[in-house]
Specification:
Keywords: Membrane, Transmembrane, Transmembrane helix. With 58 residues, this protein is mostly helical. The protein has one domain. 83% of the residues lie in helices and 0% in strands. The protein contains 3 helices and no strands. The chain has helices at 2-13, 15-35, 39-53.
Length: 58
């Protein structure tokens, strides 16, 4: 029960960082197709986006 409560409260606090992280990931993938950025460079942005998604969930 304690774990379920932990997930509920942290999911609400992390919504802003989740939205930002999703935007960073989408922007990184879009930059590969629109501006010719390499996948290696985009992987840095994708990693940052994944980090933002989990930022406030601790």
């Amino acid at each position: 029960m304690k774990i379920l409560n932990w997930f509920k409260t942290n999911a609400a606090k992390g919504i802003l960082s989740t939205i930002l992280g999703t935007g960073v990931i989408i922007g990184s993938v879009a930059s590969v197709f629109l501006t010719g950025t390499s996948w290696t460079d985009a992987a840095i942005g994708i990693g940052a986006g994944v980090g933002l998604i989990g930022l406030l969930r601790k």
